[in-house]
Amino acid sequence: MKLYTRTGDEGQTSVKGGRVRKDDSRVEAYGTIDELNCFVGQAAAVAAATGQLDGLVAELLEIQQELFDCGSDLAFRDPKGRELKLTEEASVRLEGWIDAHTAAAPPITRFILPGGSEASALLHVCRTVGRRAERRAVTLSAEVEVPAPVMMYLNRLSDYFFAAARAANAKLGVEDTAYIRSADVFRASES
């Protein structure tokens, strides 16, 4: 099998149901999700190398599968009547992981700078690329209907990466670096 097809030499690419320009909003959205998936893979590899973050690695591998589902669901030129891969259950699971990672990290009162351990730094890269993927999906949603589970998942994902980055630092014994000019902006939620 050859990897090149020559069908995109004039700036067009195939989506499920037709062809579009390579700079189409749909291609931008699922392309950014693909970019995020690469960074998640890198973060998983670095986390695995620590030998201390096996639970995180398992979560990241599941997220990679779900990101592929997101991209697949966005690749339909017309998703109406199609069976989509991502469900709201994925976002509910993310919320559980967010809560667990938040509980595993010290309380936070100020903004923090991305970094600390290498695993944490990469999770912060995932957070920012995830936010960009979400923005691309929002742009696409102004043109066509974007499946609600995809929008919900992308919105939760950056919160997951933030919480996971802080938990990774805590597990590895590395302190978060506070933004020194930050006021106390985070307060404990009232029960």
UniProtKB/TrEMBL annotation:
Quaternary structure annotation from Swiss-Prot or TrEMBL: Homotrimer.
Lineage per the UniProt record: Bacteria, Bacillati, Bacillota, Bacilli, Bacillales
Segments of this protein annotated with the region Disordered: 1-20
Domain of life: Bacteria
Family annotation (Pfam families): Cob_adeno_trans
Assigned protein family: Belongs to the Cob(I)alamin adenosyltransferase family.
Name used for this protein in its record: Corrinoid adenosyltransferase
Gene Ontology biological process terms from the UniProt entry: cobalamin biosynthetic process
MF term (GO), any: corrinoid adenosyltransferase activity
Pathway: Cofactor biosynthesis; adenosylcobalamin biosynthesis; adenosylcobalamin from cob(II)yrinate a,c-diamide: step 2/7
Main enzyme class: transferase
Keyword Cytoplasm found: no
Positions of the Cobalamin adenosyltransferase-like domain: 3-167
Enzyme Commission designation: 2.5.1.17
Annotated signal sequence range: none
Key word Coiled coil present: no
Known catalytic reactions: 2 cob(II)alamin + reduced [electron-transfer flavoprotein] + 2 ATP = 2 adenosylcob(III)alamin + 2 triphosphate + oxidized [electron-transfer flavoprotein] + 3 H(+); 2 cob(II)yrinate a,c diamide + reduced [electron-transfer flavoprotein] + 2 ATP = 2 adenosylcob(III)yrinate a,c-diamide + 2 triphosphate + oxidized [electron-transfer flavoprotein] + 3 H(+)
This protein's UniProt keywords: ATP-binding, Cobalamin biosynthesis, Nucleotide-binding, Transferase
